[in-house]
Amino acid sequence: MEKQGINYLEYGWEEPKTPAHDYLLPDICRLMKSLNLYKDAQILDAGCGGGYIMNELYKMGFENVWGFDASETGIALAQSSYAVLKDRIAVHNVYDAVMPSHFPPGGYDLVLSIEVIEHMYSPRDYLKNARYWLKDSGHLILSTPYNGYLKNLVISLLNKYDQHHNPLWDGGHIKFFSVNSLYLLLEEIGFKPIRFQGSGRLPFVWKSMLVASEKK
Known about the structure:
The protein has helices at residues 21-34, 52-59, 72-81, 123-133, 149-157, 161-164, 179-189, and strands at residues 43-46, 65-69, 89-91, 108-114, 134-145, 191-199, 208-215. The radius of gyration is 16 Å and the shape is globular. The chain is α/β, with parallel strands linked by helices. The protein has a 7-stranded mixed beta sheet with strand order 3-2-1-4-5-7-6, sandwiched between helices. The longest helix has 14 residues, at 21-34.
């Protein structure tokens, strides 16, 4: 079965910005600052959705930003919303290591993976490609919904299990990572996690977690 062909379900983007961006973007910027990235850094948003994060980084002065997504509605929305970035955005299969022909083929300083990996049937293959796209000692910033003991306990006590792990959301979350399982996967693929950031809500009931990792 072709990965992300038969398996992929269209996400159905309606707006470039989602509510998650309100808490994720400041933490992404905080991690980027800690990595001492220059403004001319080559940045790839590997799952850019409607392009909101790309545009915000571009406005901050990171002009060498590129992005792709499997969602045709997301890419169409991104290209119509952010005309200045239209040629930097493309529909692309995350399991295909070969970049679109007009993209830099590799050697990126930073790959962003923001709320993507939880939708992946094969997260290992996705991260192998992310590592391939990076230059030596390049960095990956990855976010995914946080799952931990306290948060799961609260979810159960409040009877929110079906809402959090919604099996009726076609194209929704199919992977649920703990800090430990995410770190194990990153290290297996060849990344060295160097910084952790909880994002949204109170500590240990965070909505998401972000990990900055260095390519080994």
